[in-house]
Each structure stands twice: as structure tokens, then as C-alpha cells.
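Hey,

Quick one before I head out. I ran the complex with 4-nitrophenyl phosphate overnight. Inputs first:
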Amino acid sequence: MKILMVCLGNICRSPLAEGILQQKADDAGLHWQVDSAGTNGYHVGEAPHRLSQKVARAHGLDISGQRAQNFVAADFERYDFIYAMAEDVMDDIRRISGRAFNPDKIGLLMDVLFPGKQIDVPDPWYGPEPGYHEVYDMIEAACAQIITQNIRSHHV
Ligand code: 4NP
């Protein structure tokens, strides 16, 4: 399984999502490759935001080695599933992908916990540190659910 986590800048939310889901998949013995990308391209090549790194580190997770990259239409071919952190990210992905957009291979991350409720992982970029903790907790809960669902679907 290859999974792609997508936000706007690929420096705040999706690096956390990549790190958290990769760690949970590894811990569960799943051979998954988790990556992340951004839709706006403003921070390509940069390491994750220092507050995302700090919050991750507080949870024993090192995301410092990640570098921001752009989401591209071909990611619908490269990945088995894509999670968008928010509805505006989903809109960007639709626009960037054009005919490559495949609704069967993409979902809002928080839909795994609250299907159809259209809950966004809020953009913490303009705010102080507590926003990054809130984002971490939301992503962590959703990723735990992804792992639980997957394990269940393969063992019943
Ligand atoms: P992210 O946060 O999408 O969670 O990485 C953002 C980071 C940078 C910008 C927007 C959102 N920006 O416009 O530069």
C-alpha cells in the first residue's frame, strides 16, 4: 500500500500525517509506504515547520528529515490512496489533477472518523503552538482509525 497525505504547504499538517501513519503502520507490521505533498508549492524543499517538528518530537516522532514536495496529477497513478487534510486542499487537488482525478482513490482524512461530516484538519500556519497540538491530536486519531479499519478488514 502506498498512501499520500496532502495539505497546502506540505510543511505543517501533512508532514505530521506522514510521520504518524508511517509509524503506526510500521508498528502494526504493515508494509506501507506513506508520503506527503502540498498543493501550493510555496515551500518545496523545506523541512517541516519547527512547531510541527516540536509537537512530533514531544510524541517521540522525528519528522525532521522530510522535505516538502508538490502534489502532481500523476500521484493518482503512484498512490493507492490519497488523504486530503481539508476541503480547500481537495479543491486544489481536483483543479491540479483534471482528468486524472479519481474519486475512488481520495478522501478527506477526518472522514475516516466522521464520514460525510466534511471536517477539516485546520490550517495551523498563521497561529500559535496550541493549534499544532490540536492538529496532531486530530491526525493521530484519524490515523489510528485507518490502521484499525485495515487490520479488521484483513482478519475477518
Ligand atoms: P500546511 O500549512 O498546509 O498544513 O502545510 C500551510 C503552510 C504554508 C502555507 C499555507 C498552509 N502558505 O501559504 O505558505
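The chain has one domain: 2-154.

Talk tomorrow,
K.
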